[in-house]
Amino acid sequence: MTDIADDTPETAPARPEARSPRGFADRRGSDLIAERRIVARVSEVYERWGFEPLETGAFEYADALGKFLPDADRPNAGVFALQDDDDQWMALRYDLTAPLARFAAQTWETLPKPFRRYAFGPVWRNEKPGPGRFREFTQCDADTVGSDRPEADAEIIAMAVEGLAAAGLDDGQAVVRVSNRKLFDGLFEAGGITDAVQKLTALRAVDKFDRLGWEGTAALLGEGRLDDSGDYTKGARLPAALIGTIEAFLASVSTPDLTRAETLDAVARAGGLGATGEAALAELAAIDAALGAMKVGQDRVRFDPTIVRGLEYYTGAVFEAELLLDTVDDKGRAVRFGSIGGGGRYDDLVARFTGERTPATGFSFGVSRLASALRAAGAGGSADVRGPVVVIVFGQDDMAAYLDAVAELRRAGIAAELYLGRAGMKAQMKYADRRGSPAVVMLGGDELANGQVTIKDLDVGRALAAGVADNEAWKAARPGQVTVVRSELVQTLRSIIDASSII
């Protein structure tokens, strides 16, 4: 006798739990379309500014990525890595800049110089996820490699401003803050600080100035700070005189609404910058002049010497795009998104491969982060994404007529689908509504017999239904429904879609 498999719960194989890893989001149509729109619009800006597209692979050799984590002292932390069959370690790219540096070093002799490229695609970071912060997300970068002119920085900044507007941010909804890493290099040199770890600790303290204020920052510049949770953070232990100089430096730019030139004057008056810091002021002045020539307003780009970014990465000008919109989470609680992009000058990255310093500057949009921020601000989401026209199915016998109609719509450039489930009329209407369809097409027996088609404008129906208390009256009115001759199908639908505020 053949044994029959025992499928009792005690012997059945355990089923895996359906779950997503933290920081890896499943995104449906509306979210994906929102991100793709941002990428398409920003990429159009990059191309108009003369940048060519470049695509590199998802994996890079770990030694090529190198000390790619700007805020970490560990050379191989924060990535997803694996060992190839030749025992070489490779990792998913952490950003789009390190692959660019490798590509530039590998192909430098064949490239036009300066080399101007833009790129977009997913990047991966093995870090703790949070609101709007993922382990897999999309970036959209533009970089100029091979120019040391401050005008190259200014052009990247101005292009970032235009890119933010193209992505959907209006006046007053974002600002690009600009500084120069060499300002603090000058302060440290003048103050006699040479230890790299001490400098790094001090810069991290300054980076918290907007959140902690001067008192908390001063503690971190000194012996250290005990926060409200009881955690103690070791300080930079700078000399008191240098802490005082940094206080004056930060106070010099605390007045709101200073112009870029006024900010530079205030920093210069604070003193203590040394020769390196004075050179940084000159570079910023040149950037300001170039921004002025390109008509970039003071409200769009501001100088803010507290911006330090990429503590072991950037070598000169640094920029950070800050979202100014009020945002809330799914429960209506206020969420601060802060930075939605940034960049700066990184003149040492290509030199890791070539041994020769190669000037470079660039900016990166956090596309996934920006899309999340727009949704949190009520400026994006499924309501902004139009679904296809749905052709209703009444029965199998008339399937050829339904297929003919949906094919005609597609040939005319109208997104359309034929309902291919097995539900009835009511469920099909609900399906079209959930898809965000602008309209449904109905080819019932009467319509087919009379050479007609009935089209229901779902946007009008939704609007009227929201304001009608008497359900029977709403049904009798048949809001937004029209019957036309079959030849007017495309024309009627196009007029409905063109009149919609949703694209």
UniProtKB/TrEMBL annotation:
Residues 36-388 form the Aminoacyl-transfer RNA synthetases class-II family profile domain. Residues 16-27 have a biased composition (Basic and acidic residues). GO terms for cellular component: cytoplasm. GO terms for biological process: histidyl-tRNA aminoacylation. The keyword Acetylation does not apply. PROSITE patterns: AA_TRNA_LIGASE_II. GO terms for molecular function: ATP binding; histidine-tRNA ligase activity. Its EC number is 6.1.1.21. It holds the Pfam family HGTP_anticodon. CDD domains: HisRS-like_core, HisRS_anticodon. NCBIfam families: hisS. This is Histidine--tRNA ligase. It comes from Brevundimonas variabilis.
